[in-house]
Amino acid sequence: MKKNNEILKNHNSLLGPSFTLKNRILRIIWSLVYFFLFKFSPRPFHFWRVLILKSFGAKIGKSCRIHRKVRIWAPWNLVIGNYVTIADNVNLLSMDKITIKNFVNISDGTQLCCGTHNYKSKKFELYTKPILIEKYVWICTESFIHPGIKISEGIVIGARSVVNKNLKKKYTVCSGNPCKVVKKYIFKK
Questions:
Q1: Per-residue pLDDT tens for 56-65?
Q2: Which end of the chain is more exposed for a tag (fewer CB within 10 A), N or C?
Q3: Helices in the chain by DSSP H: which ranges?
Q4: Given strand 85-86, what is the order of strands in its sheet?
Q5: Cis-peptide into 17, omega within 30 deg
Q6: Fold for domain 2-183?
């Protein structure tokens, strides 16, 4: 037991904070605002939630629907275009920038994760990569998007897919773990 405590103590002494003091304080303030003013706001009050996010530095276009049970790690790392819907229980782990272009729909339970750890290092340090979602993308229920991913225009990602590589073929349906192109489709405006 004593040896395990020494290993843990040495491991923790190698780790410094991954984020600045300012960042950590802002996230505490954001957590309080999220809990009291965002999470329990009435369901149709999308304008209110967008206003709160903008007050924390998010850049959000017109006619967006951000549902009240969306979990957001750092709103100041969000860039969201016009006519975007983000459903309940979506988790935006925005340790780095998440850019979502116009006419995107992100369904319930999806996770966009910008952070991971260097498992080959004794320090196990956190590193981040941005995520880019192009226009006309639909990410179906409970999908997971890895750090550093770009999803090209018009892609539909099937439910519970795991996207661990960039998806480059526009206007395709992609699905699976790992997520792969299933078929091409014709987009009708």
A1: 999 999 999 9
A2: C
A3: 2-14, 21-33, 46-55
A4: 65-66, 85-86, 105-106, 138-139, 156-157, 172-175, 180-184
A5: no
A6: UDP N-Acetylglucosamine Acyltransferase; domain 1 (2.160.10)
